[in-house]
Amino acid sequence: MDKQGNKTELGDSLLNRINAKRLLFVIAAGLGCSIFLHFAVQNFRQSKAALKDAKIELGSFKVVEPMIKYGFVMDTFMIQEQVIEENEFISDILTSYKVDYMDIEHMVTEYKEVFDVRTLRAGKPYTILNTDTTTAADYFIYEPSVYSYIVFDFKNKTVERIEHPIEKRIETASGVIETSLWNTMVDNGLSYELTAKMEDALAWSVDFHYIQKDDRFKLIYERHYIEGEPVGVGEIKGAYYKNFDNEYYAFYYENDKHSGFYDEEARPMKKAFLKSPVQYSRISSGFNLRRFHPVLKRRKAHLGTDYAAPRGTPIRAVADGVVTKRSRSRGNGNYVKIKHDKVYQTQYLHMNGFAKGVNVGTHVKQGQTIGYVGSTGLATGPHVCFRFWKNGRQVNHLRENLPPPESMPAVDIPLFNVVRDSLKTELDKIEFKHFRKVVENEVGVTADSLQTTNP
Ligand SMILES: [Zn+2]
Question: 48 CA distance to ligand 1 centroid (A)?
Answer without folding.
Answer: 88
